[in-house]
Write a structure and sequence with these properties.
By secondary structure, the protein is α/β, with parallel strands linked by helices. The protein has 2 domains: 11-162, Rossmann fold; 176-352, Glycogen Phosphorylase B (Rossmann fold), CATH 3.40.50. 30% of the residues lie in helices and 14% in strands. It is built from 12 helices and 12 strands. It has helices spanning 19-24, 26-33, 70-80, 102-110, 140-145, 172-182, 208-215, 230-240, 254-263, 273-281, 332-335, 339-352; strands spanning 11-14, 38-42, 58-61, 94-97, 115-119, 130-132, 191-195, 220-223, 245-247, 266-270, 285-288, 306-308. α7 links the parallel β7 (191-195) and β8. Bound molecules: iron/sulfur cluster. Residues 202, 290-291, 315-316, 318, 323, 326-328, 330-333 line the site of iron/sulfur cluster. Residues 202, 290-291, 315-316, 318, 323, 326-328, 330-333 line the site of iron/sulfur cluster (SF4).
């Protein structure tokens, strides 16, 4: 990692939540880097997303469910991320707890950070020296960025426009992987990326194959996702029956997927990590919400993006992340959000760009 500002307070950001949360933490990291060096603690899955981020002084991986599980792993990490010894006249080291767990607060305490900033109402809030209001009415990137300003009037209107945007830094390897996937042929059709996956089964819109078939005559289609999405990606590519539908789920890393999204005219995705990759690359997005809603604060940030969901369905939202199964058994929030609505949104976004 490149060195950020070498002077100023030593700062630690703990973010061991989901991939999308890590992307949405990059504006906070960028803000803090203006003041002094920033160390960041993330999960093994999220760490590659922060490669080459020039705002990060040191990146620490916390494998809390694997190699670092239990008290021994916790103590080992606390030693590795230990705050520098206080020096006379030097500003105190500050930890920013970007998730709301008691464990991250305890980690900062054990690592010797006397200043600990986190969200009001968090499980670990008694361990914080400063609490920042968790604004339900704001985008999560803005909520996280707001941690950098614990003294700010909590009732002040905050606008994402005042915050830096999420940023990722794909490099040569990611560009080469995307080049290899897309090939060198000179296809004049605009590229559309589809991200059919989600950790949560009820958040996976079931009509991506039909969408790919409908779009394929006019667009190049690239499917992105992780290992868990490979069989679905293969079905989508087969069902579309078209030349030029490429499947990147086996060959693209997270950052390479971000690079592909950057090159795409548009991304169609569920309410999952790829929409945050698109926010970081500025790619317009059609996001499909089923059991969750954009008002939770995790919608797309790129200009011209559209969020879709069945607003009239009384059972929405039913879960903060998306339940593994529909508790009512009918899964209407996704089944009844048909192909036509999404295809129309695709055209709307492309017309607006
Ligand atoms: S209860 Fe409603 S919102 Fe939740 S999964 Fe079922 S249909 Fe979707």
């Amino acid at each position: 990692m490149a060195l950020a500002a070498a002077t100023g307070p030593h700062q630690l950001v703990v973010q061991t939540s989901f991939l999308g949360d890590t992307v949405l933490t990059t504006p906070l990291i960028a803000e803090l880097a203006k003041r002094g060096p920033v160390s960041v603690v993330v999960t093994p899955a999220s760490a590659p997303l922060l490669a080459r981020n020039p705002d990060i002084h040191q990146l620490f991986v916390y494998d809390k469910r694997g190699a670092d599980a239990g008290l021994l792993g916790f103590r080992r990490l606390a030693l590795r991320i230990r705050a520098p010894e206080p020096r006379e006249g030097a500003p105190p080291a500050i930890a920013y707890l970007a998730q709301r767990s008691a464990r991250s607060g305890a980690l900062a305490l054990a690592a010797g950070y006397t200043q600990r900033v986190g969200f009001e109402g968090s499980a670990g809030q008694t361990l914080y020296s400063k609490r920042v209001r968790y604004r339900e009415d704001r985008h999560h990137a803005e909520r996280l960025w707001r941690l950098a300003f614990p003294e700010m009037d909590t009732s002040a209107p905050l606008l994402m426009a005042g915050a830096p945007s999420p940023k990722l830094f794909p490099g040569d390897a990611e560009r080469a992987a995307v080049n290899a996937l897309l090939g060198e042929e000179n296809d004049p059709r605009p590229l559309i990326a589809l991200a059919p996956g989600s950790v949560w089964a009820t958040k996976r819109w079931p009509y991506y194959a039909q969408l790919a078939r409908a779009l394929a005559p006019r667009f190049r289609i690239a499917i992105i996702g992780g290992a868990a999405d490979r069989s679905e990606a293969a079905s989508i590519a087969n069902f579309s029956g078209a030349q030029g539908v490429v499947d990147g789920t086996a060959s693209l890393s997270l950052l390479a997927s971000a690079e592909l999204i950057r090159r795409a005219q548009l991304l169609v995705t569920n309410d999952s990590a790829p929409q945050h990759l698109a926010s970081a690359t500025g790619t317009p997005t059609v996001t499909i919400f089923g059991p969750t809603v954009e008002e939770f604060g995790f919608g797309p940030l790129a200009p011209h993006s559209i969020s879709l969901g069945l607003d009239a369905l009384a059972c929405r939202p039913c879960h903060h992340h998306g339940p593994p199964h529909c508790p009512l058994g009918h899964w209407r929030c996704m089944r009844e959000l048909g192909l036509d609505a999404v295809a129309l949104a695709v055209d709307e976004v492309l017309d607006a760009c």
